[in-house]
Amino acid sequence: MAGRLLIEDKEVVIPGQELAEGMDYLPGGNIIREGEKLISVKLGLVNVSNRLLKVIPLVGGYSPKKGDMVIGRISSISSMGWRVNFGWAYDAGLSVRDCFDRFIEKDEDLTKYYNYGDYIITLITNIMGNKIIDISMKGTGLRKLGPGRILKICPAKVPRVIGKQGSMIQMIKEYTNCRLLVGQNGFIWLSGNNIEDELLAIKVIKKIEDESHISGLTDRIKEYLEGEVGIKNGL
Q1: Are residues 75 and 97 in the same domain?
Q2: What is the pTM of this model?
């Protein structure tokens, strides 16, 4: 059977909906193949990339995956390392050896590196079942986060906030003059020059989260930001 696409890119689909026929198209995330049909298993937004189809869920919590970069909060400290809450049922473990290449004395005060309540951006390196999750601070960009605001969005909406090749997040940075980091767990750290800039960044991120399923999102967000910045500047 010749391949036939039954939906359009960025179309909202429901569980059980047939997306394509034939063997020309390949199933990605949240899509299964039944014979020569590709079927969605989630309510979400279809992404069509050449022959590969995937569905980005519109709802749902975060499920940790090895290789995810996440933002978390130090919840407890022991002589061996730290526990980090990152929005999962169980805290992740951050050992001293996954933070430093140098030797750390056994009785050294670990709070001078990461203290209770500190936020970090970190990498999931190992998952054993649901309860044992290891993270690391060894890698580019992994660090303790400075003063700023923490925002929580639905993890399924993270790709829309980031945009294709980071286009959406870059636009938010340019218009709001805020520094932004987005974790794949839906935690966002932002820091601006003033409260007004930070509040604008928060408003636009929430707008993206609420309207992520509507087509023309990028143009709509750009128009919104231009209007808000114009009002701020008295234009």
Answers
A1: yes
A2: 0.78
